Amino acid sequence: MSHSDKTPGVGTGGFPSLRGFAGKIIGFALTLFLTFLGLMAVTFVIGRVLPTDPAMAIVGNRASEEVYQAMRLQLGLDKHLIVQFWIYLASALQGDFGQSIMTARPVVDDIKRFFPATLELATLATIVGVLVGIPMGVLAAVRQGRMIDHVVRVFGLIGYSVPIFWLGMVALLVFYAKLEWLPGPGRYDFYFEGIVEPVTGVILIDSAMAGEWDLFENALGHIILPASMLAFFSLAYIARMTRSFMLDQLNQEYVLTARVKGLPERSVIWGHAFRNVRVQLITVVGLSYAGLLEGSVLTETVFSWPGIGLYITNSLFNADMNAVIGGTVVVGLCFVGINMLSDILYRIVDPRAR
Amino acid sequence: MVMQDAKASPAKGLRGWLLSDSPANAFQARAQNAYVGWLAFRGNPIAMAGLFIVAGLLVVAALAPVLTGGEGLAQNLGNRLKPPSAEHWFGTDELGRDIYQRIIWGSRVTLYIVFLVSIIVMPIGLLVGTIAGYMGGWVDTVLMRITDIFLAFPRLILALAFVSALGPGLENAVIAIAVTTWSPYARLARAEALTVRKSEYILAAQIQGASRWRIVTGHVVPMCLSSIIVRLTLDMAGIILTAAGLGFLGLGAQPPLPEWGVMIATGRAFLLDQWWISTIPGFAILIVSMGFNLLGDGLRDVLDPRSGSEG
To answer: Does ipTM come in above 0.85?
Structure first.
């Protein structure tokens, strides 16, 4: 979850040798393809080449030699590594990551079930992060060196220094156990189990669509704590970057010109300076959203939130490598996808980057 | 400002030597640079606060045997789950171990992780980045493609997968963190190397017949070092948090090692009635990672005024 300073607009550039618009598109596609291939290669190495024996993990170490060998054959472990990688790549492209040992279901089905919960959490946290973090950052930049600036900076500093799993535990202790203001871990109380049919998998949307407002209220209560933990991290990052971008802009001469012209301060800040910051913020928000998707692992563990992070960690302890790899690939794809998307958006919005 | 003072009244002694307008030799020039840097650093309260915390961590780790009576491993089941008191400042855990002792000894584990990750990540990043930047051409393209691929990965998830394949443990956690964090350093080193590549002293070295390897290691790498160190200091908090997170999940340091993340995890079962077991190690992590963040911010302001956050 550490992405303190990434310069917007770099990191996923095209090939420098290719010129022109078509060249950029090709370069972009090539970058995407290479990144995907790299992701698959690394996960393949983790799943197949590193010490854990996948066949042994499935049959257990008390199985007879024949059973073990049969499983090796079934998994294709006798083939050359390149062939194995090809098979792995081909089946992954068809959405096949094998069976999960833990749930005895295809990994893809499991991921479909668990992923919306993570998406719900990360999206809500990012929305809060943007709505609170950006005004905070702008305010801090405008009032540079004053009290509010220091408050924002200290708040931000704590945000990216605090172990989020620990903060989650303390929050549970205070708001759930001691004050009893908020419900505890999980997505909703167990007696709401099975009330609505999962349509989107996002419980807040599903329950609202079904008109089950009791469930909606209950789920909303449950999501407040874990979402605030992630939002804290997200808004610390967004506020910090907004502040530094805004400071850059406010020192420019066009801002001085606008002030000399006698424009109201609000219009100078939001109409002039912030308009330029907006573009850079796309990348920041994208990075923070992608970071939350993967960073929710620890938060989900603390809050027993049935998302992809909890799925991966639970599978980990059962040596369920198919599930771990499948989950890693899916999160990795989302991560890469969001980064690419913010990069494209950046280029669309900022004419200089085209 | 400082320079002008020195000119107005030529000071004697070490300070005068450090601030004189005309350094007599290279050593004096370097010492002056360092001293002026230190003056700027000292005037930055944020940086000083960070330095204070990080230095405190070093002192505590070094003096651990003096500060505590044991290594935080001694169990005393008759004395378990005791709240903080004069005898046990931070209370005792579920095995009757003194939490104060474990926090103090845990600082060594944290430093160990920080040290190991640094000595793996810095050379890899520096080498990949400077070679790519200095050589250019297809070497640059290939190396930077690989770097970009690693840059695009989700770090924590990848570290999790790595640890699950290698097996839980402190060293494996360090390897997993290093594998997922080296890429930004390569990018940074490449950017620096690109600016250095065309400078005249590199040309001079080339004319003298220095080999590529010698130029890269002797002339390019040192120029990239300061920005790499700043970045590493800024990342240190993230590294500490990741290591603690892996420990918390049971994938990093293993009990009975007094690692702070592990301590938080063991306290989870006792959170409602014995809050101190989890809460205190969390504060330790918070303070240390805050210290590295402050120090990194301050170092960046001093060493690289261009990207400074203006006070």
So the answer is: no
C-alpha span between B191 and A212 (Å, rounded):
56
Phi, then psi, of B97 in degrees rounded to 5: -85, 145
Q: Hey, CA dihedral for A133, A136, A140, A146, is it positive or negative?
A: negative
* Tokens 């996923």, residue located: A12
What is the b/e burial string over A255-282, where b = at least 16 CB atoms within 10 angstroms of the residue's CB? beebeeeeeeeeebbeebbbebbebbbb
User: B117-303 in CATH: which number?
Assistant: 1.10.3720.10
Check if A52 contacts B (Cβ < 8 Å): yes
Percent of chain A with pLDDT over 90: 10
The answer to whether A298 and A309 are in contact (CB under 8 A) is: yes
Tokens of B154: 């989700």
What are the Cα distances from residue A220, in Å, to A226, B192, B193? 11, 49, 51
Q: Which of B156, B260, B264 to mutate to test the interface with A (most CBs of A within 10 A)?
A: B156
C-alpha span between A215 and A204 (Å, rounded): 8
Q: Which two tokens stand for residue A43?
A: 């996960």
* pTM listed for this prediction: 0.84
Q: Identify all chain A residues contacting B285, using CB atoms and an 8 Å cutoff.
A: 162-163, 166
How far apart, in whole angstroms, are the C-alpha atoms of residue A295 and residue A289?
A: 9
The answer, yes or no, to whether the previous bond of B256 is cis (omega within 30 of 0) is yes
Residues 6+ apart with CB under 8 A from B178: B116, B117, B120, B121, B124
Alpha carbon separation from A318 to A256, A325, B272 (Å, rounded): 62, 13, 28
3-class DSSP string for A9-34: CCCCCCCCCCCHHHHHHHHHHHHHHH
Say whether B278 and A294 touch across the interface (CB within 8 A): no
The total of other beta-carbon atoms located within 10 Å of residue A87's CB is 13
Q: For residue B271, which residues of chain A lie inside 8 Å, CB to CB?
A: 169, 172-173, 177
pLDDT digits (tens, 9 = 90+) for B224-255: 888 888 888 888 888 999 999 999 988 888 88
Tokens of A320: 């369920």
CA distance B221 to B87: 52
